[in-house]
Design goal:
Elements lengths: L1 E3 L6 E3 L9 E4 L6 E4 L6 H7 L1 E2 L29 H29 L19 H5 L5 H4 L2 E13 L3 E12 L6 E10 L5 E8 L6 H6 L2 H8 L2 H7 L8 E9 L7 E10 L3
Antiparallel strand pairs: 1-2, 1-5, 3-4, 6-7, 7-10, 8-9, 8-11
Length: 270
């Protein structure tokens, strides 16, 4: 049986088997409460009470909600409000967009400034590696099986500094046990074999060509001496493995004729 709300004209399917005299029902669209009475074939009756035969009465939409009362006096809760659902979706999207904008602002303005105050406990200068404190003097026996491989040297023109002389390669552990905190010395010599400039440095870090071309001297030294890189690749070098290295000389003297590299430290891990 088709039932039509007299207030908003919404039509519903009503189970005829549950029909009795003076049934009270509530419209799920407008919440109007009205009574149903036993119907007849009189057209005026159908107009007054909005009842009709399922076969003859036009159906507004076959997909519309049905009343399914548990008893004969029905108080049916209103159906979901499409406009309300839409407002909820819009509100959810707006909240999501606001959170995205806030996250973007944090990434752009806050994170870049965190580096100066970032304090990672195991990287702080006050907690020096035990490896670097265990041994202070090294003999040839301590470093004899550390070999330097894939060495190459080249010049790079830097926008801020000028001419850079770069030496890079790999320090290979040929001992039968792990080594740690491998340190090298790089020297530049004149034609007479005299050392003009020398640098001691730990292996573990390298800079990209782009960094070499555009970074300041302070930025490059920070990259090459970064403790995180050293602890990652030069903390525990297994037998047969290697740690990379790079050393940079800034605007080297014109009298430099050659360079030399020497392994000066190689610790046994704790």
């Amino acid at each position: 049986m088709i039932v039509q709300c007299p207030n908003c004209s919404t039509k519903y399917n009503f189970d005829e088997s549950k029909f009795k005299d003076e049934v009270k029902v509530r419209c799920t669209k407008c919440e109007h409460v009205f009574k149903l009475s036993t119907f007849s074939d009189d057209d005026d009756f159908f107009d007054d009470f909005s009842l009709g035969d399922k076969k003859s009465a036009p159906r507004k939409n076959p997909e519309e909600p049905q009343w399914d009362p548990d008893d004969m006096n029905v108080d049916i809760a209103p159906s979901s409000d499409p406009k309300g659902d839409r407002r909820k979706k819009i509100r959810t999207i707006a909240i999501g967009l606001s959170a995205l904008v806030a996250l973007t602002l944090i990434i752009v303005f806050v994170v870049p400034n965190m580096g100066n105050n970032l304090n990672i406990p195991f990287l702080t200068p006050d907690q020096e590696d035990e490896d670097t404190l265990r041994q202070t003097e090294f003999t040839e026996e301590d470093v004899k099986d550390i070999t330097l491989d894939n060495i190459r040297q080249y010049f790079v023109s830097n926008d801020k500094i000028g001419q850079l002389f770069v030496i890079e390669g790999q320090a290979v552990n040929n001992f039968d046990h792990p080594k740690s905190m491998i340190k090298l010395k790089a020297s530049l010599y004149d034609a007479s074999g005299n050392a003009i400039v020398e640098k001691d440095f730990l292996c573990g870090n390298v800079a990209s060509l782009f960094q070499l071309q555009v970074s300041s001297e302070e930025e490059l030294e920070s990259t090459l001496q970064a403790r995180l890189g050293i602890l990652t690749t030069n903390k525990h070098v297994e037998p047969g493995s290697y740690t990379p290295f790079m050393v940079v000389f800034y605007n080297p003297p014109e009298e430099v004729q050659e360079f030399g590299l020497e392994v000066i430290e190689a610790h046994d891990p704790v």
